[in-house]
From TrEMBL, chain B:
Sequence intervals crossing the membrane: 12-35, 67-91, 103-125, 137-155, 181-205, 238-259
Family statement drawn from the similarity comment of this UniProt entry: Belongs to the binding-protein-dependent transport system permease family.
Protein name per Swiss-Prot or TrEMBL: ABC transporter permease subunit
Cross-referenced PANTHER family: ABC TRANSPORTER PERMEASE PROTEIN MG189-RELATED (PTHR43744:SF12), ABC TRANSPORTER PERMEASE PROTEIN MG189-RELATED-RELATED (PTHR43744)
Main location: membrane
Keywords: Cell membrane, Membrane, Transmembrane, Transmembrane helix, Transport
Provenance organism: Devosia marina
Biological processes, Gene Ontology terms: transmembrane transport
Topological category with respect to the lipid bilayer: Multi-pass membrane protein
Length: 311, 274
C-alpha cells in the first residue's frame, strides 16, 4: 500500500508546484479529521473502560464504598481459587464442542461435496444453515433448553429408539450439562463453518485432485495433502471465530443453565457479571475480565500465525 | 463428470442431515407453541388442536409492538452513525495516512478480539456517571464504540482496494477532500457499506449482554434482551415461552429470508475478515 502523501509528487507532475510540506500537512489534518469521530467513540467506550478495568482489577472495591488498593491479589485469586480455575476450565472445555464439532463436520461435508452448491438446493442449504447465525443466541438457548428438557425432543428420541435409561434432564445434570451447552454452541456455529469450508474448497484447483488420482492417491491422501492445506485459511477463520465464541460465551449459558448445576457450566463471562453485579466484588470481576481478554488473545494468536503465514 | 464424484450422494445426504438438525429446534418450538395453554407438551408432537391463539397471547404478554419499536430505535441510533464514522475512519486510515500512523490502525485492530465482558463493569459505572442508566442510550453509545474495531477494519480493507488514480482524478477536478469522499468514495464503497450495515443491524438487534447489565426495563431493551426478561418471567409456561420466542425471532428471520443473498455474503465475509 502506498499512500497519497508519498506517491503523489511522482505520479502527478502538476501537483509538484505545491510546496510538498503544505500538501502533506493538509492531508495529515484531513486524516485526523476523518479518523477522529471513530477514534473518540472507540476511546470513550472501549479504551477508557479497558483502562478502568485494569485499574479496578488492582482494587478491593464493592462498587459503592471506599476502594482499597489491593495490588495483584485479585489476579492471584483468579489464578489459584479452585472455583475460578474450574470456571476458566469450563470455557476451554466449551472450546472442544464449539470448535471441534463444527470444523470436523464442516470438513467432512466440504471434502465430500467438493463443488459449488448451485441452484435451488444450494440456496436452500445456505438459507437453512445460516438461520442459527441470524437469530439471537438467547433464542438458540431457549430453543435448546426446550430440546434438552425432560419431555423435550432429545429424550423423546432416546425413548423412541429404546434408550429410555439415557433420558434425563440434560441441563440439570452435573455431568451432562456442560456438554449439552457445548452442543448448543456447536449447533449455532455449524452452518457458518460448513459454508465457509464448502466455499473454500471450491477455490482449490481441481487439477490437483486429478493429478493426485492419476498418481493413484487414496482419498485419505487427497484429503491430507490437498484439501487440508488448501483450506488452511478457512480452517483458521473457523477456529478463530468459534474459539472466541466459546471463551467469551455468555448468552447461551445465561439462558440455558444460569451456570448451574453448581458451577459446572459457569463460564468467565457469566462469572464476571455475577461477581461485579451480584456479589459486588468489582476488583475480582475486573481481574477475571482482564485474564479472559488475555486468554482470548493467547488462544487466537497461534491460530492466526499458523494459518496466515504462508498465503 | 468431473465434479459429480461418487461422493456427491454422500455429501447431499450429509447436508440434508445437517439441515434437519438445524431445523429441528425450530420445529420443536413450533409444536410446543401450539400446545394448549398450561400443558406440558412433548418434544415434537403436532398437537391435535393447534392453538394459534398462543401467538396472539404471547404478542400481548410480551408487548411485541413496543419491543419492535424499542429495538428499531436502538438500531437507528447505532447503525447509521457507526457506519458513517467507520467509513470516514476507514478512508482516512487507508488513503490519508502514511506508514508512520500504522499504530493508529493497530490500536483499532487490537479491539477485534476483545470480549464485551472485559469492559462491561466499567461501562456500567461510566454509563451511570453519564446519567444514562436504564435508557436506550446506555445501549446505543457503548455499542457504537464497541463496533469500531470491526467496522473500521472492514472499511479500511475496502478502501485499500480502491485504486489511487480515482482519488487523484477527483483532486484534479478541484474537489475538496470532503466532497471527494461523498461523491466518489462513498458511492463506490456501497457494497462494503451494505454488508457492514447488515452485520451491525444483526449484532445490535441480537445484543444481549449490554441490555441485561445496563437496562432494567425490558421495554427499553433490544429484542434479545427482552427475550431474556420474557424467559425469566414465563419460563415455566412452555407453550407461551416458545410462542414468544418464535415471535421475537420472526422479524430478523423474515428480513433474512428476503435478503438471503446479502445476509449470507455479509456473514461469510464478516467471519473471514473478523
Amino acid at each position: 500500500m502506498t499512500d497519497i502523501t508519498t506517491s503523489l509528487p511522482d505520479a502527478q507532475p502538476e501537483r509538484v508546484r505545491l510546496p510538498p510540506s503544505r500538501g502533506s500537512r493538509k492531508t495529515r489534518m484531513a486524516a485526523w479529521l476523518f479518523v477522529a469521530p471513530a477514534f473518540i467513540a472507540y476511546a470513550a467506550f472501549v479504551l477508557a473502560p479497558l483502562c478502568m478495568s485494569i485499574y479496578y482489577s488492582l482494587l478491593r472495591w464493592d462498587g459503592i464504598g471506599e476502594a482499597q488498593f489491593y495490588g495483584l491479589s485479585n489476579y492471584v485469586t483468579v489464578l489459584t481459587d479452585s472455583d475460578l480455575l474450574q470456571i476458566i476450565g469450563n470455557a476451554f472445555q466449551l472450546v472442544l464442542y464449539f470448535t471441534l464439532i463444527p470444523v470436523l463436520l464442516g470438513l467432512a461435508v466440504a471434502a465430500a461435496i467438493r463443488s459449488h452448491m448451485a441452484g435451488r438446493f444450494g440456496t436452500i442449504t445456505r438459507t437453512v444453515l445460516f438461520l442459527p447465525q441470524v437469530i439471537p443466541l438467547v433464542a438458540a438457548g431457549i430453543a435448546w433448553s426446550w430440546m434438552f428438557a425432560s419431555t423435550g425432543l432429545v429424550n423423546q428420541t432416546l425413548k423412541a429408539i429404546g434408550l429410555s435409561s439415557w433420558a434425563r434432564g440434560w441441563l440439570g445434570d452435573f455431568v451432562w450439562a456442560l456438554p449439552a451447552v457445548g452442543i448448543i454452541g456447536a449447533w449455532v456455529l455449524l452452518g457458518l463453518c460448513t459454508m465457509l469450508l464448502v466455499t473454500g474448497i471450491t477455490k482449490i484447483d481441481p487439477s490437483l485432485y486429478e493429478a493426485a488420482r492419476l498418481d493413484g492417491a487414496r482419498p485419505w491422501h487427497e484429503f491430507r495433502y490437498i484439501t487440508l492445506p488448501g483450506l488452511r485459511q478457512e480452517i483458521g477463520v473457523c477456529i478463530t471465530v468459534t474459539v472466541i465464541a466459546a471463551l467469551a460465551s455468555f448468552d447461551i449459558v445465561y439462558i440455558s443453565t444460569q451456570g448451574g448445576p453448581g458451577i459446572t457450566t459457569t463460564v468467565p463471562g457469566l462469572e464476571i457479571y455475577r461477581l461485579a453485579f451480584a456479589h459486588r466484588q468489582v476488583g475480582l470481576a475486573s481481574a477475571l475480565a482482564i485474564v479472559l481478554m488475555v486468554l482470548v488473545l493467547i488462544s487466537i494468536a497461534p491460530v492466526q500465525w499458523f494459518t496466515r503465514d504462508k498465503k | 463428470m468431473k465434479t459429480a464424484s461418487p461422493n456427491s450422494l454422500i455429501a447431499r445426504g450429509l447436508i440434508i442431515v445437517l439441515m434437519i438438525i438445524t431445523l429441528l429446534p425450530f420445529l420443536s418450538m413450533l409444536s410446543a407453541a401450539l400446545a394448549p395453554q398450561g400443558t406440558y407438551p412433548n418434544g415434537l408432537q403436532w398437537p391435535s388442536d393447534p392453538q394459534w391463539s398462543n401467538f396472539v397471547r404471547a404478542f400481548e404478554v410480551a408487548r411485541m409492538d413496543q419491543l419492535l419499536l424499542s429495538s428499531t430505535l436502538i438500531v437507528m441510533g447505532v447503525v447509521p452513525l457507526s457506519v458513517l464514522i467507520a467509513t470516514m475512519a476507514g478512508y482516512g486510515l487507508a488513503k490519508l495516512t502514511s506508514n508512520k500512523y500504522k499504530w493508529l490502525y493497530l490500536v483499532f485492530v487490537f479491539g477485534l478480539t476483545l470480549p464485551f465482558e472485559a469492559v462491561i463493569t466499567p461501562l456500567y459505572y461510566e454509563v451511570r456517571a453519564l446519567g444514562l442508566l436504564n435508557t436506550r442510550f446506555a445501549i446505543i453509545l457503548p455499542l457504537i464504540g464497541l463496533y469500531m474495531p470491526f467496522s473500521v477494519y472492514w472499511m479500511r480493507a475496502h478502501f485499500l482496494n480502491v485504486p489511487h488514480d480515482l482519488t487523484e482524478a477527483a483532486q484534479l477536478d478541484g474537489a475538496t477532500r470532503w466532497k471527494e469522499f461523498w461523491l466518489v468514495q462513498v458511492p463506490l464503497a456501497r457494497p462494503a457499506i451494505m454488508s457492514l450495515t447488515i452485520l451491525l443491524f444483526l449484532w445490535t438487534w441480537n445484543q444481549f449482554l449490554l441490555p441485561v447489565v445496563l437496562v432494567q426495563d425490558p421495554m427499553q431493551r433490544t429484542m434479545a434482551g427482552a427475550l431474556g426478561a420474557f424467559q425469566g418471567q414465563w419460563g415455566t409456561d412452555i407453550p407461551l415461552l416458545c410462542a414468544g420466542s418464535l415471535l421475537i425471532l420472526a422479524p430478523t428471520v423474515a428480513l433474512f429470508l428476503v435478503f438471503q443473498r446479502q445476509f449470507v455474503a455479509a456473514l461469510m465475509q464478516g467471519a473471514v475478515k473478523g
